[in-house]
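User: I'm putting together notes for a lab meeting next week and I want to include a structural view of one of the chains we've been expressing. I don't have a solved structure, so I'd like a prediction I can at least talk through. The sequence is below, exactly as it appears in our construct file.
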Amino acid sequence: MNKDYTEALGSLLELAFGGGSTARNDAALQNAMTPLLALGCRQHQIAGGKTFVHSGFAVYSVFVLLRGSARVICYSAAGAASVQDSLAAPQMFGLIEVVEERLMFAASIQANTDVLVLEVPAALFRSVLQNSTPAARVIIRNLAFLAVRNMDNVEYYTLNRPQQTLALYLYQACKDTSKPYTLPLCRCMLAEILHIHLRSLYRYLDELKSEGLCCVVRGKITVTEQQFAALQQFCAGFEQP
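Assistant: Thanks for the context. Below is the predicted structure for the 241-residue chain, given as structure tokens.
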């Protein structure tokens, strides 16, 4: 492993995940990326709505989200899509797959907003994890963050009522997107994903509509800017994770 590469990636991760003001400074991030670009990494400016990690594809890189936000999308065997989470920078996608040496990505990652991403080849990332203490610290903290977040989400969906679960799903789906947001799922798929009876789903949707949390436009579940604000407040009322 190239010592320069190990030190450069460790410095970038510390800068991006450090939480200080420099972590949000594009100039500082660009300077930290420059030596990595010469060593085989690639920088991507990706427009909102574009998918940059594809579920089921071979794991070839870790994608470090440095600016913007992205959503995690999983698919059922029948092809139904489910937004599992929405995460703002800094974040690492493909990290779990690389650490566990999985062959394929477990989920797709789609940009919510315009994003800045550094693509790090998987083999080089593994070597840095083994040889750079600063990088390893950042990676471990990030894995701990994801583990706690996932446990909180599971607990949340288990303990709350179906109407609240539906509200949170809509909130997570349209968070960090332009409004009005149209949910790209039919009601049958949504009921299957949330484990809610279809007839009950219609009733819960009617309740959310009556409370001004969503609407239906041309047959599609839609959330306007005003409804999103109300939806955010509604979800915060029952301890959104």
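A couple of points you could mention at the meeting. Residues 3-155 form a domain with the Jelly Rolls fold (CATH 2.60.120.10). The first strand starts at residue 42 and ends at 46.

User: Perfect, that's what I needed.
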